[in-house]
Amino acid sequence: MKKEYDLSTLKHRRRGPVARADAKVQKTVRLDLDVLSWLMQEGKRRGIPYQTLLNSLLKEQMRKSASLDPDDFRDEIRKIVRQELKKAS
């Protein structure tokens, strides 16, 4: 081992941001067995991994809920409640 090193010859590479906006993150998620089974079957049917399917379904739901008007949401809930009350009576 040398007593001194010449650090002026080192190539400096600038590090990027810690996490890119499009980065994927590994996280444990607990799913019901029937949900996981459906995801796996549907993924196989579509020819994509079930994790990719789950991610695309969640993104689709995010886009839908972001575009929902609160009044539309209330109207939809009222419609569902009326349907359920009809079934129950």
Question: Which tags fit this structure?
Answer:
single chain, 89 residues, 0% strand, mainly alpha
As a whole number of angstroms, the C-alpha radius of gyration is 25 Å
Could you tell me how far the N terminus lies from the C terminus, measured between alpha carbons in angstroms?
A: 87 Å
Shape: elongated
Low-confidence stretches: none
Q: Kindly state the percentage of residues in helix.
A: 55-70%
Q: Would you report the number of β strands?
A: 0
Q: How do the SSEs run, as a string of H and E?
A: HHH
Task: Report the biggest beta sheet as strand number plus sense, adding barrel if it closes.
Answer: none
Mean pLDDT: 85
* Secondary-structure class: mainly alpha
How many individual helices? 3
Q: How big a fraction of the residues is strand?
A: under 5%
Summary?
With 89 residues, this protein is mainly α. The chain is 57% helix and 0% strand.
Description:
The protein is mostly helical and 89 residues long. It has a domain at 29-83. Helix content is 57%, strand content 0%. The chain has helices at residues 33-46, 50-67, 70-88. The radius of gyration is 25 Å and the shape is elongated.
